[in-house]
Structures are given as structure tokens and as C-alpha cells.
Amino acid sequence: MEKISISQFEEEIRKKSTDKQEMGKLAIELFEESGNVTSIIRRSIKGNFHEKNIDFEQLKKEIGDVLVCMVQLISQLPGVSLEKTVRRNLDKINTNYPSGDFKQENALLEFGEYQKNVVSTYRDDLPLTSPEQARFFAMGLMKEIGKISELFGENIIDGVSLNRQIYRIEEKLGDALWYLTAIARTAGLNLGEIASANMRKTQMRKKATEEKIEEIQEK
Q: How far apart are CA 186 and CA 42, in angstroms?
């Protein structure tokens, strides 16, 4: 798997998100992007939406968009980071699943390492075929994203203090990332490569913007 640290990815995406965005809009965007992931899986399952094969390139793009959206949303929450969220998940994995082999003293936490540890938490009775697993994980992803939307709704609509919600939001973001990672793994996708592609795309857009600004200034 391609080695890329989660903190490196997070830092690059945060640079892109210079403008403060309304958290409600970001929560809705996260729900929509996650829905795009599950729609691809739905279309690959026999039934009214049957397709012979999953569009892996499209699935990679949609998973990358969810990762970016997660970082953008997390950046609005005080004291929360993607790396901190993932490390807490790994602590939970190593506590509950002895087969997990993450060592906390590692200086950098990589997407590939996280993806490998996620597998150790699969239920023993999980369906063995990839389509069935993908459907299982897709349902889990939307369940957790729905809970995140509910928590933000309580803050925005009902006026519940965000400080009272942050721990739960971070926990649910971690659970959603677990399912997203499992979806990628079930489809044979490398989460590190997906994150790297998004970083390169972000860097190219930033460079293009800077060149455009220089061109305008020179005129």
C-alpha cells in the first residue's frame, strides 16, 4: 500500500479550506458524498439497479470526496483532528481485538496501517463474498453519517451546545471512517493511494490558482 500519513493529508486539505464554511452545509455535504459511495455499491447488487461491475474509478473518487469532506468538517470543530480520531479508533481496536498490531509509539500514522487494522475487527459471521460485505459496510456508513447529521441538527435546529456534542460527533466520524475504510478494502482499493490522489489534485488546483493570480497581476 502507498504510504501516506494521515496528518500530512489532513494538513494539505486544511490548507485548501481557507474560508470558514457553515457546519450545517458541511454536514449535509458529507451525507450527500457518503450517499454517492453507497449508491455505487447498490447498483452493483442484483436487483433493479443491477450492474455487472462496480465502477472502481468512480468509487475511488467518491471515497476521496468523503475523506476531504470529513477533514473540512473536522477543521470546524475545536480540538478535533482526523489523526486524533483515527488514533482513538486504533486504541479501541487494540483494546478489544488482540490481533490488532498498531503500536502507539509510531511517529506517523499511515492510511495503510489503519486499513490493515480495520480488517482485524470484522465480525466472525460477516458474509464472505465481496458484494455482501460491501452492502453490509455501506449500510453501516449511512447509519453513522445519519447520526452525525442528527447531532449537528440538534445543535443548529434545537440549540444544543456544540461543546456537548463534540465528543459524540468525533466518535461517530471515527465510526464512519471505519466503514468507509472497510468499503475501500472490500473493493480492493488502497486508501493511501486515494488520499494521495486527492492531495495531488489539491496541490495542482492551488498551483493553478496562484499562476492565475500572477498572470492577472502582471497585466
A: 14
Find out whether 210 and 16 touch, Cβ atoms under 8 Å: no
58 contacts 39 by C-beta, under 8 angstroms? no
Evaluate whether 90 touches 101 at the Cβ level (below 8 Å): no
Whole-angstrom distance, CA of residue 71 vs CA of residue 135:
25
Residue type, 29: E
What SS3 state is found at 110? strand
pLDDT per residue over 108-166, tens digit each? 578 888 888 888 788 888 877 787 888 899 999 999 999 999 998 898 888 888 888 89
Give the count of beta carbons closer than 10 Å to the beta carbon of residue 62: 22
The per-residue pLDDT for range 105-124, each reduced to its tens digit, is 444 578 888 888 888 788 88
**Spatial separation of the C-alpha atoms in residues 133 and 15, rounded to whole Å:** 35
